[in-house]
Amino acid sequence: MKKFKIKTRKRELTKLWSKTVRERDGCCQWCYSRTRQLHAHHVVTKIYGNALRYNLENGMTLCSYCHRDIPNRIDEYIEFRNCWLWDRGIDYWKLYRQAQIKVKFTQTFFEHKKAKLLEALKKAEDIDL
Ligand SMILES: [Zn+2]
């Protein structure tokens, strides 16, 4: 049996999470650019907790320009973010609290998250066709 390497698995999930978020959104959610490089942005950043690191509700596609610009336009960003979440029926403070739940990165956790992300990715890719 292959050894369960946490670092490798985390990297794998982050890549899959990012790809799925970008595939789902298709363009920068702030400026609608499709041509700039797209990043998957964590709505609740990991400073506040790791529990939603690989959850799709906690991901938003931003172009490299908007992503970098958040600190310079923080008030504008927060307003945009709250509207964006509102449109999707997501409450920021609920996410914020959920992010702080302690999670242990086990093989079961990894497999569960991976399966969920793969399923969502497949759905997002199907919509594109
Ligand atoms: Zn943008």
Give the distinct bound molecules.
zinc ion
Number of strands: 2
Strand content: 5-15%
Backbone shape: globular
Helix-strand makeup class? mainly alpha
Radius of gyration, taken over Cα atoms and rounded to an integer in Å: 15 Å
The profile of the biggest β sheet is:
2 strands, antiparallel
Low-confidence stretches: none
Number of domains: 1
Mean model confidence by pLDDT: 95
Secondary-structure element sequence? HEEHHHH
Strand order of the largest sheet: 1-2
N-end to C-end Cα span: 38 Å
Describe the model.
It is built from five helices and two strands. It is globular, with a radius of gyration of 15 Å. Bound molecules: zinc ion (ZN).
Write the layout of secondary structure elements.
Layout: H1 6-25, E1 38-42, E2 59-63, H2 64-69, H3 74-87, H4 92-99, H5 107-128
Antiparallel strand pairs: 1-2
The structure holds zinc ion (ZN).
Residues 28, 30-31, 33, 62-63, 65-66 line the site of zinc ion.
Characteristics:
129 residues, two-stranded antiparallel sheet, 2 strands, mainly alpha, binds zinc ion, globular
Offer a concise description of the structure.
54% of the residues lie in helices and 8% in strands. The chain is mainly alpha-helical and 129 residues long.
